[in-house]
Amino acid sequence: xxxxVRDASLDxxxxxxxxxxxxxxxxxxxxxxxxxxxxAGVVILAxxxxxxxxxxxxxxxxxxxxxxxLVVVPPARGQGAARQLLSALLxxxxxxxxxxxxxxxxxxxxxxxxxxxxxxxxxxGHRTN
Length: 129
Known about the structure:
Layout: E1 4-7, H1 13-23, H2 30-40, E2 41-48, E3 51-61, E4 64-72, H3 81-95, E5 100-102, H4 110-118
Parallel strand pairs: 4-5
Antiparallel strand pairs: 1-2, 2-3, 3-4
């Protein structure tokens, strides 16, 4: 069964938080996702048979966005979900006149680095530790 990428809604927050807390504790607070979903950003989901397999969340200010989280649940990894999420997010941001997307990735996360490089991202700096 293929993945579907769709916009998240406020009704998805509990399921988003469960994934965030289990696999990527970036900022697992309902209020953060509520802000993003009500105009401060974008949250999209990869789903399969109504189960959330992954998510991408970014904040937005004027023509610049910051990728806050891109996570795929372990059973769905290696199947292109991250690439689909990133592609859909870039398309959505481009449609809304965002000219630049910033992100940080751990130095040890070579899979994510490869994904971002293949999507055309360029290294802009390095933060120690």
